[in-house]
Amino acid sequence: MITRQAFDAELQEMETKVLAMASIVEGMVADAVEALWRNDMQRAEQVLKRDDEVDQIDVDIESSCLRLIALQQPMGSDLRVIGTIMKMITDIERIGDYAVDVAKAARKIQDEPPVEQLVDIPRLGNAARRMLLESIEAYVKRDLQKVIQVCQQDDEVDAIYRRIRTQLQEIMREYPEQVTAASWLLLVAHYLERIADHATNIAERVWFMETGRLEQLAKKHKSGALDEAFAEAAQHAAETQADQSESNEPSV
To answer: Does position 135 have pLDDT exceeding 70, yes or no?
Structure first.
């Protein structure tokens, strides 16, 4: 059994690695979309190369989590934090894989006639990236209100995806010479929509970490049943602020 101080130090080190992993993956998504839109094959190749680094960080963090569980036998909130980290890195690694898929699509269509009519792929990529960044921010700050905001943003991503899908289907009907490129772009839109889904998974895991309850908040939002979650997030924020105020008060 390791000491509490050593446990906290190892947990902090793991969290630092999670943030580094998320930062790399967010950059991969940005570069993959840019490579696709600018026909920049050098940028696409850089995305592919970074995938191995992400995979290794994933393995390292998982090994550290298992070691902490074996040596410390954590319970309660400590176990939820470790469990959340293990689930988060799975989602982050999958986002990296989707970034690689987008980069590969860029290579596939580099010599195809461009689909000039389509302008929403970068917007979809930016929306998915924003959800990833904000889900990680929610984790760092233990911010349940940010969790709900991420889940709400999934609506925007779904709407953009549906619009792109309709546009591409129309393009394929009207411009046979663009069928190959449009087909790949349809896949790209799907990859970016899935990235947003994984960001939502991360946010929902943060909710579990802080409340002890696994809830599908995105589905609740779509059905208009988030009022209770809103109230709980507001109460959590108020309690956190009160705790911080007490800890900052000078001792007498």
So the answer is: yes
Give the residue from 201, 198, 214, 210 showing the smallest Cα distance to 81.
210
- Whole-number Å distance between alpha carbons of 35 and 104: 10
CB 121 within 8 A of CB 33: yes
pTM of the model: 0.87
CB atoms within 10 A of CB 16: 10
Contact 142, 80 (CB under 8 A): no
Residues contacting 105, CB < 8 A, separation 6+: 36, 184, 185, 187, 188, 191
Q: Is 216 helix (H, G, I), strand (E, B) or coil?
A: coil
In the predicted structure, residue 77 carries a pLDDT above the cut 50: yes
How far apart, in whole angstroms, are the C-alpha atoms of residue 31 and residue 27?
6
Number of Cβ within 10 Å of residue 69's Cβ equals 15
The set of residues, in sequence order, having a beta carbon less than 8 Å from that of 217 and lying 6+ positions away, is 147, 148, 151, 200, 203, 204, 207, 226, 229
Q: Does the pLDDT value for residue 165 go beyond 50? A: yes
pLDDT: which is higher, 72 or 184: 184
The number of C-alpha atoms within 13 Å of 150 and in the hemisphere containing its C-beta is 32
Amino acid residing at 111: D
**So what's the pLDDT on residue 252?**
42
Is residue 231 over pLDDT 70? no
